[in-house]
Amino acid sequence: MFGQDDRDKLDALTKRIDAAKEAVDPSSEKGHSAPEAKNRGAIRGALLASDLLASIVGLGFCGWLADEKFGTRPWLMVVMILVGFGAGLMIVMRALSDKPDEDSDKEPSGENRGQ
Length: 115
Hints:
Number of strands: 0
Strand content: under 5%
Shape: rod-shaped
Distance between the termini: 38 Å
Structural class: mainly alpha
């Protein structure tokens, strides 16, 4: 069915495809990985830590401003710091959860209709 000429063409095509893949993705070489892949966990951890810290500091500042306005120093600030800690933990836990989004189970609009 296939001759040697067809096999040679297929092998040449396979080699060209592999070369193109390596040109686009240099991490595909054996024993090497892209720096982004190595640092992905550290970057994600830093982003989550900054989210947690930003919620604590941001709401703590809002509490401090409210204390200045209402003269309830330091109680509103303490309460808002605790609320910020809880909100930051919720953000981190939501980001780390393995549950898929609720919308991912729904059928995309406009696709697969009438089948």
